[in-house]
Automatic annotation (TrEMBL):
<dbReference type="GO" id="GO:0016301">
    <property type="term" value="F:kinase activity"/>
</dbReference>
<protein>
    <submittedName>
        <fullName>Carbohydrate kinase</fullName>
        <ecNumber>2.7.1.-</ecNumber>
    </submittedName>
</protein>
<dbReference type="InterPro" id="IPR011611">
    <property type="entry name" value="PfkB_dom"/>
</dbReference>
<keyword id="KW-0067">ATP-binding</keyword>
<dbReference type="InterPro" id="IPR029056">
    <property type="entry name" value="Ribokinase-like"/>
</dbReference>
<dbReference type="InterPro" id="IPR050306">
    <property type="entry name" value="PfkB_Carbo_kinase"/>
</dbReference>
<comment type="similarity">
    <text>Belongs to the carbohydrate kinase PfkB family.</text>
</comment>
<keyword id="KW-0547">Nucleotide-binding</keyword>
<keyword id="KW-0418">Kinase</keyword>
<dbReference type="InterPro" id="IPR002139">
    <property type="entry name" value="Ribo/fructo_kinase"/>
</dbReference>
<keyword id="KW-0808">Transferase</keyword>
<feature type="region of interest" description="Disordered">
    <location>
        <begin position="308"/>
        <end position="328"/>
    </location>
</feature>
<dbReference type="InterPro" id="IPR002173">
    <property type="entry name" value="Carboh/pur_kinase_PfkB_CS"/>
</dbReference>
<dbReference type="Pfam" id="PF00294">
    <property type="entry name" value="PfkB"/>
</dbReference>
<feature type="domain" description="Carbohydrate kinase PfkB">
    <location>
        <begin position="8"/>
        <end position="311"/>
    </location>
</feature>
Amino acid sequence: MRPGVVAVAGEALVDIVPAPVGGYYELAPGGSPANVAVGLARLGVPTRMLARLAADPLGERLRAHLAANGVDLAHAVAAREPTSLALVSVDAEGVASYDFRVDGTADWQWSAAELEGVLAPGSTGPVVAVHSGSLALTTPPGAAVLRALLVRAAAEATISYDPNCRPLLMGDPARVRAAAAELLATADVVKISAEDLTWLLPGRAPADVLDDWLGRGPALVAVTLGPDGVLAGTASGLRTRRPGRRVAVVDTVGAGDSFSAALLAGLHRRGLLGAAHRAALRAIDAASLNDVLDDAVAAAAITCSRRGADPPTAGELAGRWQAAPTGS
């Protein structure tokens, strides 16, 4: 794996997930940014988590989970507020929906002082990318502080953004659209799901949004289509669609986060992260882009095939995971 750190900024919360039997619930580590950090680390990418981790028992479990997966927590904040909770429901097709308990919790209370020095080089090299998204970029008061971090980081690092919409907490879609438009001017890599687009931009076709967003600044935009794979393109004019992978879906928790992690890992492996490599990222060739996307689709499929946010390791993706493409 090439040197260079990917920093991930945002929430690390606890998912309350249905147990396999008995009608009970279990606790599991979650939060979209934290899931991406674990996914990156499992794929061999040096990963730094920028999170506010509570000192309560749930926060300690989150800290232990991240550390056990090789995520660097040297810049994580020891927060006095309690841990955020997400109550997860899974329908008959394994599709997850979320309810939240987040009032006054740790993830949203960022101050500018807490983010000083978080982009300093580490033992494995400089920070070459910063990924963020989801609730951390829309929930006050910390959202503005994290958005400012992304703007500052863009001078040296690739910026990766996943809106990961949560309508229950994000409120008015128009407000989220405005925030997303601002971030598109900063982001280099954008991933969004078709489900998110239905809420954020109702009536807009994924291909239309892809072209629109690529004209606003990003080098690469990927629209995930659930079991139908992914539609993606680059600012240089490349467009591609890759098929999904056929799996027995247990649940979809963390699938999109695994996609983002594998996407960034593939770009990292090819030396395409970092502000100095923006031109190369924009000019990525079709074969390389398809290969990166196929791994990202496979990573999401693996996660769907097991319970909870459980992204694959590098070994599970080695040589391309061999589940059949959807429709084959």
